[in-house]
Design brief:
314 residues; mainly alpha
């Protein structure tokens, strides 16, 4: 599966603070596999924290910690800050990709939307991204690409099928609207990331993006929640994991891939996340793994291969 997704990025380019190693190894080539694996673990943190913390309040603290860490690192390492105009775009991008996306998904699941339904809705993101990337960024989306995206969506549906229920009390017009909003948010965030932040230092750029996302969830928390967080071992572990591994690790990898590849192809990696999540749940939480899900995983992998591999040249 690693080989399937390495083609997403351009190995000829490197981020400003990630020079090639002396032996010529391209560390960026590991980003797709690492991103999928790490991003899939996000459910562990949300699952552990949900009973003890309000969603937007939890995210507000998480983003505040991440922003502080990145700010200190940027100052100590004397990273270059973007211009005022680009900084505003970074804040807006973060408001969508961090605040709108994570805030929306956490909120919808907290108020009862089944994780399977949320996963299926957010799996529309690669399709939306491809449509907008073609119109806004001028990326060429071939029929082969669209076919792969459709197959990927079908694969995700198979992976989440055992948890896919549309009769749950938590499926309401409000939770559906919020989850769709979250999907649109990360789509817009990815497009803006590619359009306006390609040449921004990731340290300062991420600082501004998490600040923008943090402002969104903080406003939401102050308006709708009581900032109730029970700080027990589960919540502390979840906060640490989601802050260090997801926010500082996986999201940085996502931004690197968007910077060095076509955003419409990078977004197809999200088809693999539910499959990896199901496997993790199988080993850590003894959740079942059905034949339909196994077939769905293969379908997702085939879809990503179809989208990302270069067609044979004559």
């Amino acid at each position: 599966m690693v080989e399937v997704i390495l083609i997403v990025v351009n190995p000829q380019k490197q981020a400003p603070f990630m020079p090639p190693s002396r032996n010529g190894f391209n560390w960026l080539s590991l980003a797709p596999a690492l991103f999928v694996g790490l991003w899939a673990t996000g459910f562990i943190g949300s699952r552990l924290s949900a009973p003890y913390a309000e969603p937007l309040s939890f995210l507000s603290v998480r983003f505040a910690i991440v922003t502080t860490i990145l700010l200190v690192a940027s100052i100590v390492m004397k990273a270059k800050w973007p211009t005022f105009k680009v900084s505003v775009w970074a804040l807006i991008t973060g408001a969508f990709s961090q605040g709108g996306y994570l805030g929306g998904v956490f909120w919808a699941i907290y108020f009862g939307m089944p994780a399977g339904v949320a996963a299926l809705i957010t799996a529309l993101q690669p399709l939306l991204t491809a449509a907008l990337a073609g119109m806004i960024l001028g990326e060429k989306i071939s029929p082969r690409h669209w076919t792969g995206l459709a197959i990927g969506l079908a694969g995700v549906a198979m992976v989440v099928w055992p948890k896919l229920t549309f009769t749950a009390i938590g499926i309401t017009p409000t939770t559906l609207a919020v989850c769709f909003f979250a999907t649109v948010s990360i789509t817009l965030g990815s497009i803006l990331q590619k359009r306006h932040l390609t040449n921004v230092d990731l340290r300062t750029g991420n600082t501004l993006q998490f600040a923008g996302g943090g402002l969104v969830v903080l406003i939401g928390a102050l308006a709708t929640e009581n900032f109730e967080i029970i700080w027990n071992a589960d919540v502390i572990f979840a906060m640490t994991w989601l802050t260090l591994v997801l926010s500082l690790g996986a999201i940085t990898m996502l931004y690197l891939m968007i910077r060095h590849g076509e955003v419409s192809k990078v977004s197809s990696l999200f088809f693999l996340v539910p499959a990896v999540t199901v496997v993790i749940a199988y080993f850590l939480f003894d959740e079942s793994l059905s034949p339909v899900q196994l077939v769905g995983m293969a379908v997702c992998a085939a879809a990503v291969l179809l989208v990302t591999r270069k067609p044979a040249t004559k």
